[in-house]
Amino acid sequence: MRASNLANDCAAHPRQLDTSGRGFLSFRGVSDLLGAGAYSVHVAGKPLFFSKLPSMRTVGLLGIFLWVAAWSQSPITRADLAVRLIEMETCWEAHRDSLEARLRATRPLSEGLTAFFSGRFDALARNLTLACAALRSDTPTTPEMLYAGALGVRLPHVVEKEALDKGERVLRFQLFEFYNAEKPQMPLQLRWKIFRRGDTRLLREGALENPEPGAAATLLTQAAEGDYEVLFEIRQGEQPLRQWRQTFSVIAQLNARIEALSRAAESHDDADTIERMTVLNARDVLQNAQKGESPETFYPLLRLLQFAERIAAGWEAGKSAWQPTPGDYWMATLSRERKVAFRLFIPKQFKPNQPIPVVIALHGAGGNEHLFFEGYGLGIVLKEAEKRGWAVIAPRAEISLAHIRGALEAVEKLLPVDPKRIYLMGHSMGGAHSFAAIAQFPDRFRAVVIFAGAGQPTQVPTDLPILMTVGEQELGMLKNNIENAHRRLQGLNLKTLEYKKYDGCDHLMIVREAMPDAFAFLERAPTR
Predict the structure, then answer these.
(1) Is residue 503 part of a domain?
(2) pLDDT digits (tens, 9 = 90+) for 226-258
(3) Of the N and C termini of the chain, which has fewer Cβ atoms inside 10 Å?
(4) Measured between alpha carbons, how far is 280 from 386 in angstroms, rounded to an integer?
């Protein structure tokens, strides 16, 4: 994930953590994270992200944000943290109806946040284990629970079908250690079940006794082409200690199909920009996955490949392959000569001849285009949008607000967008980017929601409705910055300004808890 304002950003946003082991993060000052100036995130010495946000008075957050480059020493990858974030969101979802449970979990979640800021990803993972345990029960965490939480699974994200068929390869996983934990005397067991994505029929199951870091096991020796999901569970006797899921894809003629995408993009350099960038994005994702660099998402890679192939086939036929239909798309475009990857959701109510409202969702620092779709509340933004028949586009943050311009231009090209119902929301750094977007595009948005936002507002039209949200258990310095932003908005005399606080909620979970209220606010926002 890129550098992150939040523990949430860390685990959830798989775009910022470095998978090469060579990455580092740098900030030109604490207030950068809050929107005062530009900052950069580097991987292998190359800047991934800079953003000049609205000017603001420097806020006193010095202690917690002055951190650097422990990333390069961490053996934990961005893809590893993505799995843990989704596991954490699943725990929260199962127990969020209990205020007492949420309150118990906020402390380890906040401690995980500070661990993330200091680059201690082992401590972050340990606190995610403690948070899940706190959600389940008020009893102390046992050594068995801590050990179960320390174990992680790495498996190939993609494998070529022919290699399985010929016996040249089997699909295996290996256990690794998120953090150091003493192995308990009581033996544990790791179990798994394999399914096709979207199918409840069990294909295969297995178990590994006494799991420990370095141990390995075979999942499959043969499989049909498809996208798959593995449900893992660690048990002590018959008591489940931990459950999570991971994904992989089996693809026929993978090398040849990747090469075909490259040739198609090279021979059609005059193709539609979005289509060509989407094909190149799919090629790059698949190439990297083939090298063992797992993408920080559960997006099905066979589906990604097949979509890119349909686009390329359209070029050969001399026509556009894009026909908007309900679904979840992983695409890309160019904005100011910068690649902007994005996820696009089209609801089942979509009709090509009817204008559709759209929500632009901006992730926090450390995140990427997948965070709103898979992380925050397990994609709660899609559930709320589906209820109303709205589209959602979530771009990966890029420099100079290129991702916001890119998202606006892309969604208006891909869908019949209702120009009077374009909504904006942002979490943490995405909140700072939202304030900057308002200043740059003051007339484009019907209403805006800020979830625990960084940054400070500067130029805000008085007729623009804004909802600000924060958790009562937000870290003090971050909460002060959010309250300062609210006071500044009050001073601008907006016609519609709401501020909601949520008990039993920290920086990590604010999006999940506030999202239903956010959509209700957007829905009732008057025409500007």
Answers:
(1) yes
(2) 999 999 999 999 999 999 999 999 999 999 999
(3) C
(4) 29
CA-closest candidate to residue 341, choices 405, 290, 397: 397
- Half-sphere exposure for 124 (CA within 13 Å, toward CB): 30
Q: Which residue has tokens 């950068």?
A: 32
Question: Are 34 and 59 spatial neighbours (Cβ–Cβ below 8 Å)?
Answer: yes
**301 and 353 assigned to the same domain:** no
Spatial CA neighbour of 156 closest among 11, 281, 286, 258: 286
- Report the alpha-carbon distance of residue 23 to residue 445 in Å, rounded: 36
List 193's β-bridge partners, or say none: 205, 231
Question: Is 226 part of a structural domain of the chain?
Answer: yes
- DSSP-derived secondary structure letter, 465: -
Same domain for 358 and 494, yes or no, is yes
Phi, psi torsion values for 70, nearest 5 degrees: -75, -10
Q: Is 119 helix (H, G, I), strand (E, B) or coil?
A: coil
Contact 218, 171 (CB under 8 A): yes
User: Which structural domain range is residue 170 located in?
Assistant: 151-251
Enter the pTM of the model: 0.86
As separate numbers, helices (DSSP H) first and strands (DSSP E) second, the chain gives 15, 19
Residues 6+ apart with CB under 8 A from 28: 37, 38, 39, 40
Rounded-to-integer distance, Cα 468 and Cα 474, Å: 14
Shared domain for 387 and 246, answered yes or no, is: no
DSSP E strands, 287-427 = 327-335, 338-346, 356-362, 391-395, 417-427
Q: How many domains in the chain? A: 3
Domain-ending residue, one of 204, 225, 251 = 251
Give the relative orientation of helices 510-524 and 78-95 as an angle to the nearest 10 degrees: 70
What's the pLDDT tens digit per position in 38-69?
333 333 333 333 333 433 333 323 232 333 33
Residue 442 buriedness (CB in 10 A; 0-12 / 13-18 / 19+): middle
> Are 53 and 336 in contact, with CB atoms under 8 Å apart?
no
Dihedrals φ, ψ of 399, to 5°?
-75, 155
CA gap 36, 191 in Å, rounded: 48
